[in-house]
Structure formats: C-alpha cells, structure tokens
Design a protein that fits this description.
The chain is an all-beta fold. The protein has one domain. It is 0% helix and 41% strand. It has no helices and 7 strands. A 4-stranded antiparallel sheet has the order 1-2-3-4, with no helix packed on it. A hairpin with a 5-residue loop joins strand 6 (73-79) and strand 7. The N and C termini lie far apart (29 Å).
C-alpha cells in the first residue's frame, strides 16, 4: 500500500473525483477558501498531470461540486451562491 500524499490546496468541502469513460483520466474537484471550484487532472494510474487550477467562470459555492461523466466528458455541476444550479464541461477526453 502506497503512503498518502498531500495534493496541495486547502478545501472547505468534501473533494469529488470522476474518471473519463474514454481515457480513464481522472478529475478532482474541491473548493478553495474563497468558495471557488478548483480542479486537478490525474492519469488513469493516479499520477498528477497538472497543478490545481481555479474554475475560470468565477462562480462561488458553499456546496461540494458534483462531477458527472457523460461518455468521455466530465461535467461539473454546482449550486452557486445565488441558489441556481449551473453546469459546464470540465474535461473533454
């Protein structure tokens, strides 16, 4: 069993993860201390492929971002501070 390694960034929620059905690429989602979603991509073998990046939409939420897989694409679904539900393609693979 491999040791647990910190992945960087502080979170205010429970992180979520989804994997592309086409490539096996995984996407991790978490909220930073400004309540903005952040994402980090991993290979099918669990190796980080990039650093964390903040969602470019500027949306904020106090709820965990739900990740859903549709074929090979991963969509982020969140409830914004205004109470509306938004979604966007977060990964296309």
């Amino acid at each position: 069993m491999e040791p647990v390694a910190a992945q960087g960034g502080n979170t205010t929620d429970t992180p979520t993860m989804a994997a592309s059905a086409r490539t096996g690429t995984m996407l991790l989602s978490y909220l930073d201390n400004t309540y903005r979603p952040n994402y980090r991509q991993y290979s099918p073998f669990g190796s980080p492929q990039s650093g964390s990046s903040q969602d470019i939409t500027g949306w904020q939420t106090v709820s965990a971002v739900f990740l859903s897989v549709v074929f090979g694409d991963i969509f982020a679904i969140l409830t914004a501070l205004n109470g509306y539900v938004y979604y966007k393609r977060a990964f296309s693979g």
